[in-house]
Design brief:
The complex is a heterodimer.
Chain A (H helix, E strand, L loop, with lengths): L21 E7 L3 E7 L3 H13 L3 E12 L5 H9 L30 E9 L6 E4 L13 H12 L12 E5 L4 E11 L10 E14 L1 H4 L4 H9 L6 E3 L6 E3 L10 H8 L6 E16 L5 H18 L4 H10 L2 H9 L1
Antiparallel strand pairs in A: 1-2, 2-11, 3-7, 4-7, 5-6, 8-11, 9-10
Helix pairs in contact in A: 1-7
Chain B lengths: L18 E5 L6 E7 L3 H12 L4 E7 L7 E8 L5 H37 L1
Antiparallel strand pairs in B: 1-2, 2-4, 3-4
The chains are: A alpha+beta, B alpha+beta.
């Protein structure tokens, strides 16, 4: 009748179905984080997880020019190993991708998109020499390999002395007379391109379990039956209160949705002993970072990246205008029927 | 040797539109949106957000082939709305949700960071 509603152009005029998710951080360290995400759905939780793993940008070595390599490893092998060294990437979000950088030709010194590293090591002693990430030299100290940066911090805290057990990530070992000399360019990239750019070691989420014990039915069990029922869970979800001899939920989050306790309850002839639901709007996230960016920054960057992605998939104005030209579909169909 | 470049997976080729729109020829208020260089990350959140809209009769997405880096989102709405309106609204709502989530996170993180400072 009215067909008005928006005539296609739409947007803004509709009612909002927005959600207001809640967050609670349980644990936050540089490279590890655990938090609860509530009042949203699995699609959002999974989108965040996917973005953290494969679309949050970091810096990694991408181009290697080898001048001398008389080590036992071939050039490609060394280039690959260099690429996998995590570099401090706090600045990655504001840097440019080298393919989008118009300030340079994409290979070498460019303040917007690349960082140069030098490595120059030669073994002149009879002892095997380890070439490590600490031998990578860069004029800009914001992009040091993660372990080197951490060592510098630790050394500072210890009063200028290096802890001897921290020797960096080994790239190759050299014997007397062998030499490795190269120039490496690090660039911004995302995990979708190559896993070396992924800031996430592991990112997981689980539904928060809701466990209800049928106390009445539970009391019909003998002490030994209770014990064997508790034992039937592969993870320690339940426990026995030593004073009251009651079964209690010790750690609901240890539950892996294996349903072993439910099967066990059925096996001992007490179905419905326990009911377990997955709360489909509550998630427990575990984020582990490679160290390239702190775990909390990874989450913040993921939200930002996801926002940018959404902005990119907005309909462009010309599509919306084009659609208006054709007018209502009803008219089109009627026209075709004639 | 003839492997396609890795960036093909996420860089929209020149001359291609990020989003294109095609009306259904038979059903009123139904349309397909082809989104280039996107995957389940965007497809699934948009679909689920569309399901929250009571004017949307059908919303689904597909990734036609793992080596074709695009998704197709199909929307069918009531006459009170239009696929385009629903699509725009879904994206706006998701964007606002992320804004909200971002500020919630910022607040929580700064609170945690301050507490760590106090421990020293």
């Amino acid at each position: 009748m009215e067909g008005a509603g928006g005539g296609g152009s739409g947007g803004g005029s509709g009612v909002s179905y927005q959600r207001f998710p809640r967050v609670r951080i349980r644990e936050m360290k540089d490279e590890y984080m655990k938090f609860e995400l509530r009042d949203t759905d699995a699609s959002m939780a999974n989108a965040l997880r996917r973005v953290m793993l494969s679309e949050v940008p970091t810096i990694a070595i991408d181009l290697v020019e080898i001048e001398v390599n008389s080590s036992v490893l071939n050039d490609e092998f060394i280039a690959h190993r260099l690429g996998l060294i995590p570099l401090c990437s706090e600045r990655a979000m504001e840097m440019r991708f080298s393919r989008d950088c118009d300030a340079c030709d994409g290979d070498g010194e460019c303040p917007y998109c690349s960082i140069e590293f030098q490595l120059n090591v030669r073994c002149d002693s009879d002892q095997t020499l380890d070439v490590t990430s600490a031998d990578l030299h860069c004029h800009d100290h914001r992009f040091l390999p993660v372990d080197v940066a951490q060592r510098a911090l630790a050394a500072e805290a210890a009063g200028g002395y290096d802890a001897p057990e921290q020797r960096g990530i080994i790239i190759v070992k050299l014997r007397r007379g062998q030499e490795l000399r190269l120039r490496a360019i690090a660039r911004k990239g995302i995990g979708k391109d190559h896993a070396k750019w992924s800031p996430g070691a592991t990112v997981t989420f689980m539904y928060e379990p809701e466990i209800h014990i049928n106390e009445e039915l539970m009391e019909t069990l003998t002490h030994n039956e209770k014990l064997s029922w508790i034992e039937s869970s592969p993870t320690k979800v339940f426990d026995l209160d030593p004073k009251t001899d009651q079964v209690i939920v010790a750690d609901p989050e240890a539950y892996t949705y294996d349903e072993e306790v439910i099967k066990k309850a059925e096996a001992i002839g007490k179905p419905g002993l326990v009911e377990i639901y997955a709360r489909e709007d509550s998630f427990i996230f575990t984020v582990e970072s490679t160290g390239a960016i702190p775990a909390y920054q990874m989450v913040m960057n993921a939200i930002e990246v996801l926002k940018q992605k959404l902005d990119a998939v907005r309909l462009s104005d010309d599509i919306q205008d084009n659609d208006d030209q054709f007018g209502d579909l009803t008219r089109n169909i009627q026209g075709a029927a004639l | 040797m003839n492997a396609p470049d890795r960036y093909e997976r996420f860089v929209v080729p020149e001359g291609t539109k990020k989003v294109s729109y095609e009306r259904d020829t038979k059903i009123i208020n139904a349309a397909s949106f082809t989104v280039e260089r996107e995957d389940h990350t965007i497809g699934n959140i948009v679909r689920m957000q569309l399901h929250r809209d009571p004017n949307v009769l059908f919303a689904g997405y597909k990734l036609p082939h793992p080596l074709q880096y695009k998704i197709i989102v199909r929307i069918h709405t009531t006459s009170q709305s239009s696929p385009m309106q629903a699509y725009n609204q879904a994206i706006t709502d998701l964007d606002k949700e992320l804004d909200y989530l971002k500020s919630a996170f910022e607040e929580r993180i700064s609170r945690k960071l301050r507490r760590v400072d106090m421990e020293y």
